[in-house]
Every structure is written in C-alpha cells, then in structure tokens.
Amino acid sequence: MKAVIPAAGLGTRFLPYTKAQPKEMIPVVDKPAIQYVVEEAAASGIRDILIVTGRGKRAIEDHFDANIELENHLAREGKSSALGELVDLMSRVRIVYARQPSPRGLGDAIAHAESFVGREAFAVLLGDDLTSDPPCTRVLLDVHRRLRGTVVALQEVSAQEIGRYGMAVGEEVEPGILRLTDLVEKPSPSEVRSNLATIGRYVLAPSIFESLRSTKPDKRGEVQLTDAIRALIASEDVYGVRYRGIRHDVGNVAGWLRATMAIASMRPELRDIVGERRASGVEETSVSHRRVGGRAAVRSRPGAAPGPRRKSRKH
Question: Considering the domain boundaries, does residue 307 fall inside one?
Fold first, then answer.
C-alpha cells in the first residue's frame, strides 16, 4: 500500500514563522513534524509515499534529500550518528512529490494523488497529527485488511470541540469499529449528534477520486475530503475506528507546545529539563493517561510555586 501526505496548507496559525517556512517543518524537539509522520508510515509497513506540497514548501524536499557535503563533514568529525536516524528512514521509504498550485482544500490535495496510487486503496496521513503506541496508520491498515473499504480514524472530543472537526455517526459492528452512517464537516451546534471526531488518518478506497470529482467546493472555495467520504457512505461500506493510542495535535501553537513537552519528557537527556519546568508550577499529564478533547491535560500542581503570569492567547 502507498501513502499520501498532504503538506500544501498555508499554516496561518503559526504566523509569522510560516511566512517563509513550511508549517510541516516546525521542530518538535529536534525533528520536523513531518518526519514523525513519515516515520509512522514506515513503521506501518508503507514504503512508497507521495507528499503533496505547494508554493514555499521546498524545505520539505530538501530535508528528505541527501546532503553529501554535510554527511561527509559529519563523517570527518566523527558525528555521523547526528543524521543516522534520518538516513536510516530514507533507506526504508521512497518519497515523491506533487504540487498543489493553490490551496483549494484537503480534498483537492488528495485528488492530485490519483495517478500515484492508481486503482488501489491508499493511506492518508495529515501532518497536524502525530500518533504512536500504536501508530494510528497501522491500526487502520489492520482493519482495512479484514473489512476492506474506506477506514477513518476517530477519537472522542468534547462537545465544545466537535465543531472544529469532522463529526462521525455510525453503528458499532465490532468493539471500537463503527460502520458509518454519516459524516459532517465542522458541524454547527444544531447538527451535533456525536462526540466522535475524525482525526488526520485515513485508508481510502480508490472510489474516493470519483467522489472528489463530483464534490462541490464549500463556501470558501475548498473541496473537503469529509464531504467526499460522506458521499461514499450511500454506496459502499465506510468504517470508523476509535483510536486509543497517543495522539498529539501540532496544528496549533498550544498543541505543538504540549507535544514538544511530552516527547521531550521521553528522552533521557531531556527528561530532567522538562521536570524542572514542571517543578516551576505546571505539570502535564501524559496523553496516554488523561485526555481532554484528544489533547494532553495541562493543570497547575497543587502546592507548587506559581510560575510567571502569562496572558492567555486565543487560537
């Protein structure tokens, strides 16, 4: 199976950083976010990957390309291990690129992958979500191999947050697996019938391309993948899988910061530094132990010295 990683968005939530840098290249500890996504695809047994880029995204291609001068310099300095993880990753995957000329929505980005995937099912991994223990794509592939059809990753979110996601409605056919009866992109309060949100992992049947061709753009002129999948529900089985692993949403500044803290805390050489931050008055509960709307809960630790006051920021 092949994978498609859409990476053509403008990244406005991270301005001014994303004025000249791709959002997907924002570092999470010491690796760009998109590298974690490619690693998940490789860990799920996928070798062939298409990254759909747009204007100003050349840094993504450069990151995954060989840099002989740098590699030779590191070898002379005895520091070859600095790039060892990335070099190993690139030996296990083949990455090609397609260009989305203008940001016309996720559905339009996926449509650019048709010649790459052909008439086979394929995985889609969005760069805003980092998943592990187990990799979400691996979970979806296991379900797809048994049940076939399109498979969508789901996670419970709060009633206040469901309007930011695609909302899934369905009937459970196996523990944790639903046959979907409806999908609604960013439902209004009157449309909310479920707290199950679609997250950025899919296995799509090739019939999605015909559905995308007949999907009308929304009021912003964007073609939504959720609308195209919704249309498939009328003619074929579409499944939703409750993902219960670890998920970090790095699509906004607060989520990126939580992800960075959580991932850094798993690194022995950084654990003490993260611990010092927690000792200053903020403690982050592991995503695998407590979730609030699919994100790690951040709370003040009773009895700790208060940290510096910060103005709240709206996202």
Answer: no
Specify whether 203 is located in the same domain as 226. yes
Q: What confidence tens digit (pLDDT) does each residue in 228-253 have?
A: 999 999 999 999 999 999 999 999 99
Full residue range of the structural domain in which residue 215 is found: 2-249
* Orientation of helix 84-92 relative to helix 33-43, angle to 10°: 50
Collapsing DSSP to helix, strand or coil, 139 comes out as: helix
Block residue for tokens 């999907």: 215
Q: Same structural domain for residues 166 and 295?
A: no
Q: Which residues contact 308 (CB under 8 A, 6 or more apart)?
A: none
Distance (Å, whole) CA 228 – CA 219: 15
Secondary structure element (H or E) that encloses residue 34, with its range: helix 33-43
Which residue do the tokens 């301005």 mark?
15
DSSP E strand stretches across the chain: 2-7, 27-28, 31-32, 48-53, 94-99, 122-125, 129-132, 150-156, 166-174, 177-185, 196-204, 238-242, 246-249, 282-284, 291-292, 295-296, 298-300
Surface-to-core class of residue 102, CB atoms within 10 Å of its CB (0-12 exposed, 13-18 middle, 19+ buried): exposed
Contact 192, 159 (CB under 8 A): yes
For residue 303, pLDDT over 50 is answered with: no
